[in-house]
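Students often ask why inverse folding is considered easier than folding. One informal answer: many sequences map to the same fold, so there is more than one right answer. In these notes we will look at a single instance of the problem. The structure comes first.
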């Protein structure tokens, strides 16, 4: 689908820095109870449970639209134009990549600046609240920008059509597929083989922690101003949402990002290629792996199309190692643990991975080198240089290969079972969601397993060549010994 919630890490909006983030806008059903002009009580659920139950409280109001709807998106475009968005060379249409997106309606040159969304149409921490008391309290407590903006949107959503942002809110997708909105059961069932599952659980826990912190510090102390239940996506840094720009979809082939143009005082991006009328226009959401794109934005690029794709390979010290405790202590000094993940790409792996492998296989006689190995295994050390221990090379590569093949077997098990999974769903709407989530998981696992297969091939070849070389050396030594014996 075509939503791209633009997130900028910046000190102030006039100095926006290019850091695109969420692709697929997180949307929810919101239950609203307005008890006075200054009180908004909401309940937001990110769960996919749509079981029908008799309503016992405030009735939900619609939030967002179907992911392929262009009707609400067209209303958004009209409102933006009426509110000061300059004439555009793009329009919202249904597209093959992303359900809906921005399509060129004029010739667009390479290097041309587009968008020019003015600051007045950007939602930031400095946006004016319809209920200013709530905004003042959040700012007084120094709430980070992203949860502040999320609460701002909830407040505006409660106003429905009377909010100036109603056209924007109604154009957001109702059905998010980011891993933040998968249930724990869905994560466990579909992503058991992938390390991105752990990242998703960690992110969800951060979300929950952020909300609990806000509830304890602020919401509970100001019940007349804040929602009873709010689930806030928490991201570090200063953020801003840019309506219209978030209709742009991601392409792995594109290197252009959103930025703030000081001369025109608007959010822009500069094209890195020309576009003909009717072609979809893309930007980049960052140099991310397929797993990271699924985690934050809810989509997986077609296999083999993402040059930055990677897979996390877990490595683990053996508890039976005589030097286990000593090695763990060395790792802790550099922010690492006995179980660590390292990224593999089709093109290879980081130096830190091999350094960790050296440490994992090193014997007690090399205890004096544990600190050096642990330091080299940490990417926090900017002065890291490649370390080599020829006497450990074969063991280290075999250690990585064993870990690689263990991961491959997990992916194979999931992919073989995925065709026969009983979805146990009776609702057609839920069936569509489950089928789609399952397909996303299959696509991700195929792309990550492909990288593991490549690493397996390289490791096996290195070990084969190494062992052939050792065998050849032994044969030469044997021949020489025989010659000397004959003398």
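Output (designed amino acids):
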């Amino acid at each position: 689908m075509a939503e791209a919630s633009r997130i900028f890490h910046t000190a102030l909006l006039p100095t926006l820095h290019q850091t695109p983030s969420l692709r697929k806008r997180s949307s929810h059903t919101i239950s609203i109870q307005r008890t006075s002009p200054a009180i908004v009580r909401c309940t937001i659920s990110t769960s996919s449970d749509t079981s029908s139950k008799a309503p016992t409280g405030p009735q939900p109001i619609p939030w967002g639209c179907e992911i392929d709807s262009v009707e609400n998106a067209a209303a958004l475009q009209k409102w933006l134009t009426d509110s000061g968005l300059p004439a555009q060379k793009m329009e919202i249409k249904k597209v093959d990549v992303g359900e809906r997106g921005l399509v060129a309606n004029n010739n667009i040159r390479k290097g041309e600046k587009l968008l020019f969304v003015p600051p007045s149409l950007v939602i930031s921490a400095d946006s004016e609240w319809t209920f200013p008391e709530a905004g003042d309290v959040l700012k007084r407590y120094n709430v980070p920008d992203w949860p502040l903006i999320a609460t701002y949107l909830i407040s505006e959503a409660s106003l429905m059509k009377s909010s100036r942002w109603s056209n924007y809110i109604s154009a957001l997708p109702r059905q998010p597929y980011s891993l933040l909105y998968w249930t724990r059961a869905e994560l466990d069932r579909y992503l058991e083989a992938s390390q991105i599952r752990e990242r998703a659980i960690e992110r969800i826990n951060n979300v929950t922690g952020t909300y609990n912190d806000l509830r304890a510090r602020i919401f509970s102390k100001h019940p007349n101003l804040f929602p009873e239940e709010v689930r806030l996506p928490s991201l570090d840094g200063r953020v801003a949402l840019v309506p219209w720009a978030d209709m742009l979809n991601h392409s792995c082939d594109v290197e252009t990002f959103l930025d703030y143009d000081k001369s025109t005082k608007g959010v822009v991006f500069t094209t890195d290629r020309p576009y003909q009328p009717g072609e979809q226009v893309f930007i980049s959401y960052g140099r991310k792996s397929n797993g990271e794109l699924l985690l934050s934005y809810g989509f997986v690029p077609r296999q083999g199309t993402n040059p930055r794709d990677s897979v996390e390979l877990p490595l683990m010290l053996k508890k039976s190692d005589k030097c286990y405790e000593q090695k763990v202590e060395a790792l802790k000094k550099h922010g690492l643990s006995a179980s660590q993940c390292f990224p593999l790409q089709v093109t290879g792996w980081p130096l830190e991975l091999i350094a960790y492998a050296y440490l994992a296989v090193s014997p007690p006689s090399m205890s004096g080198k544990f600190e050096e190995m642990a330091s080299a295994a940490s990417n926090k050390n900017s002065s890291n240089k490649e370390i080599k221990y020829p006497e450990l090379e074969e063991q280290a590569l075999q250690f990585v290969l064993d870990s690689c093949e263990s991961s491959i077997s997990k992916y194979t098990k999931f992919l073989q079972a995925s065709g026969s999974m009983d979805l146990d769903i009776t609702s057609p709407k839920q069936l569509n969601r489950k089928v789609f989530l399952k397909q996303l998981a299959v696509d991700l696992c195929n792309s990550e397993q492909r990288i593991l297969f490549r690493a397996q091939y390289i490791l096996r070849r290195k070990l084969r060549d190494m062992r052939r070389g050792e065998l050849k050396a032994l044969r030469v030594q044997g021949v020489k010994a025989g010659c000397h014996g004959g003398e």
